């Protein structure tokens, strides 16, 4: 690949509607809209929200509502789910919700689908009103969803109105190899959550490409990887800003998922975690690109070259809004060769 190959790779944003310390939920949602407007001007392709529940630090539980809020406050950027956890919902309800969104904002809505609960087991059982280990056919439910979106479903006794005939691209999401086989079989675009589950990224992408079957949607594989990105003007500042993210991930191990905290001196991290916790956090963040513009450019080029993905989705867990936007600006400059 030549030095300009990054210009052919799309770049997008994942948002968890992360709650920052001392922010209200309204301020959290306003931050998301401000970020979406900013990255839209910077030329990002899409802005996705991920469905999570029962988390004090994450406010993206009503994912479809947030998608509508941000799509209504922007003009051109694609807005969607990364993803909707389909076992939590009836395919008909999702078809109606995204059919409504797709009717309001034509050619701008994406529907990424995952099979994980997006929460703990007890909360998942409460959402689904069924045991967490109850049999579930992800493929059958995706195909039912596709049927509701199709014009051919007009003759059915159960129709998605709105939804029927609305063009809402469906993506398959994965954090292991399971969904890679399914995305390949259905000929759908595939997005991998390397920002928190890096272990099987290489294998999943290989499976997806090897077993991909062309469909009416795609003639060849289209893969996207979601990674953590924290860019700043200097290496030192980027490392400093990243301490908020490390502390957030430490909360996963200690089950203390508080709102995102301000950054602090990096050498203080050793006082917060045990060696085992440090290993676990750093393993989860194997694909965290942290540094100045030159470092990010070198590392992301190597990553894309190795993984051969068509799109990179960045999540930037930075406490300060202006510095978060600056991180996205620097990443855009890397991806466009500026």
Question: How does the SSE layout of this entry go?
Answer:
Blueprint (H helix, E strand, L loop, with lengths): L9 E6 L9 H18 L3 E4 L13 H10 L5 E8 L5 H14 L4 E6 L6 H8 L9 H12 L20 E5 L3 H9 L3 E3 L8 H11 L11 E9 L3 H20 L20 H10 L3 E4 L1 H15 L3 E5 L5 H16 L2
Parallel strand pairs: 1-2, 1-9, 2-3, 3-4, 4-5, 5-6, 6-7, 7-8, 7-9
Helix pairs in contact: 1-11, 3-5, 6-7, 8-9, 10-11
In whole angstroms, the N-to-C terminal distance is 18 Å
Low-confidence stretches: none
Quaternary: single chain
Using only C-alpha atoms, the radius of gyration works out to 19 Å
CATH superfamily: Luciferase-like domain
Q: Might you state the CATH topology name?
A: TIM Barrel
CATH class: Alpha Beta
Biggest sheet architecture: 8 strands, parallel, barrel
Binned, the helix content reads 40-55%
Shape: globular
**SS elements, strand count:** 9
Number of domains: 1
Tally of DSSP helical segments: 11
> Which structural class do the helices and strands define?
alpha/beta
- Order of strands across the biggest sheet? 1-2-3-4-5-6-7-9
Report the order of strands and helices.
Answer: EHEHEHEHHEHEHEHHEHEH
Roughly what is the average pLDDT, rounded to an integer?
94
CATH architecture: Alpha-Beta Barrel
Query: What percentage of the residues does DSSP assign to strands (E)?
Result: 5-15%
Pfam families: Bac_luciferase
Protein name: LLM class flavin-dependent oxidoreductase
Domain Luciferase-like: 10-246
Family: To bacterial alkanal monooxygenase alpha and beta chains.
């Amino acid at each position: 690949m030549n030095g300009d190959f990054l210009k052919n790779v799309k770049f997008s944003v994942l948002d968890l509607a992360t709650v920052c310390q001392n922010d209200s939920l309204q301020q959290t949602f306003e931050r998301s809209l401000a970020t979406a407007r900013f990255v839209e001007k910077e030329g990002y392709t899409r802005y996705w929200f991920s469905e999570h529940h029962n988390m004090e630090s994450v406010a993206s539980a009503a994912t479809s509502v947030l998608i509508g809020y941000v799509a209504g406050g922007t003009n051109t950027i694609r807005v969607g789910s990364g993803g909707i956890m389909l076992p939590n919902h009836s395919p008909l309800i999702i078809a109606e919700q995204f059919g409504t969104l797709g009717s309001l904002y034509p050619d701008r809505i994406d529907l990424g689908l995952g099979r994980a609960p997006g929460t703990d087991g007890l909360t998942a059982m409460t959402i689904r009103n069924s045991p967490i280990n109850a049999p579930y056919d992800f493929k059958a439910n995706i195909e039912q969803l596709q049927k509701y979106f199709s014009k051919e479903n007009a003759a059915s006794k159960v129709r998605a109105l709105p939804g029927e005939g609305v063009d809402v691209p469906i993506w398959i999401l994965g954090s292991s190899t399971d969904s890679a086989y399914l995305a390949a079989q259905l000929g759908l675009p595939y997005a991998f959550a390397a920002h928190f589950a890096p272990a099987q990224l290489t294998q999943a992408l290989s499976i997806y490409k090897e077993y991909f079957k062309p469909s009416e949607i795609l003639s060849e594989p289209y893969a996207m990887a979601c990674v953590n990105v924290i860019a700043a003007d200097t290496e030192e500042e980027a490392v400093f800003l990243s301490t908020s993210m490390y502390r957030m991930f430490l909360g996963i191990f200690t089950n203390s998922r508080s709102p995102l905290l301000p950054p602090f001196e990096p050498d203080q991290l050793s006082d917060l975690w045990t060696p085992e916790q440090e290993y676990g956090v750093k393993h989860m963040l194997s694909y965290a690109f942290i540094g100045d513009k030159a470092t990010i450019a070198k590392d992301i080029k190597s990553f894309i070259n190795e993984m051969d993905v068509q799109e990179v989705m960045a999540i930037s867990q930075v406490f300060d809004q202006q510095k978060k936007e600056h991180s996205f600006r620097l990443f855009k400059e890397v991806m466009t060769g500026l």
